[in-house]
Structure formats: structure tokens, C-alpha cells
């Protein structure tokens, strides 16, 4: 393992031919159980990661709100385009259904 990655823990899973669904379910349950145990342990970094994650979450929430507003605007514009397009098609269909009358004065 490279020197820069000595702090990284590795879980290696080898899957053989006779690996079945029940074995996969047991593996998933075991991993979930271990993750729950790891969540109860204190972090080795002294909380630095938590503060960074909070900052990133704050930035992401602002971006999500902005994105949501842009998406809403796009949805509204798209809706009204569809409404006007439908009205235009109805008017065109009505004009084609009834023959137009042209009055010519002599």
C-alpha cells in the first residue's frame, strides 16, 4: 500500500461461484451492523471533518435552493408555452373547420 494511504482501511470481499442471494443478504446485514458500530465510535480527526461537511452542506443547500427556483421558472415557462400552443392549435383547427367568408362590395 502507498505511504500516503496508510490511514485508509480496506475491506476486501471475495465472491465465489456459489455466492447466493441469501449470502448476499447476510453480507449486507453484516456491513450495516458494522457501519452502525462505527457511527458510535469517536472520529480520529477530532471533528475537523464534521465542520467541513457542515460548510459544504450549507453551500450545497444554497445551490439547491437556487437550482430549485430556476427549475420552477423553467416549469412555469414550459407550462405557459404549452397552454399558448394548445390555444393556437385550437384556433387554427376552428379556422380550418369553418370556411372563411369574404365579402366583396361592388
Number of strands: 0
Mean of pLDDT: 76
Please give the radius of gyration in angstroms. 32 Å
Estimate percent helicity.
55-70%
| Strand coverage percent | under 5%
Largest sheet: none
- Sequence stretches where pLDDT stays below 50 over 5 or more residues: none
Shape: elongated
- Please report the number of helical segments: 2
Helical/strand content category: mainly alpha
Q: Element order, helices and strands?
A: HH
Distance between the termini: 100 Å
Q: What structural keywords apply?
A:
mainly alpha; 2 helices
Report on this structure:
By secondary structure, this protein is mostly helical. The chain has a domain of 25 residues. It contains two helices and no strands. It is elongated. It starts with 20 loop residues before the first helix and ends in a 9-residue tail after the last helix. The relative contact order is 0.03.
Would you spell out the secondary-structure blueprint of this structure?
Elements: H1 21-40, H2 48-97
Short description:
The chain has helices at residues 21-40, 48-97.
Amino acid at each position: 500500500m502507498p505511504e500516503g494511504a496508510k490511514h485508509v482501511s480496506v475491506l476486501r470481499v471475495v465472491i465465489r461461484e456459489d455466492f447466493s442471494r441469501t449470502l448476499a443478504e447476510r453480507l449486507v446485514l453484516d456491513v450495516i451492523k458494522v457501519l452502525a458500530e462505527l457511527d458510535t465510535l469517536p472520529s480520529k480527526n477530532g471533528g475537523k471533518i464534521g465542520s467541513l461537511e457542515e460548510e459544504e452542506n450549507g453551500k450545497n443547500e444554497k445551490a439547491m435552493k437556487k437550482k430549485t427556483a430556476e427549475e420552477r421558472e423553467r416549469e412555469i415557462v414550459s407550462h405557459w408555452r404549452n397552454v399558448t400552443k394548445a390555444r393556437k392549435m385550437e384556433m387554427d383547427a376552428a379556422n380550418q373547420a369553418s370556411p372563411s367568408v369574404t365579402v366583396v362590395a361592388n
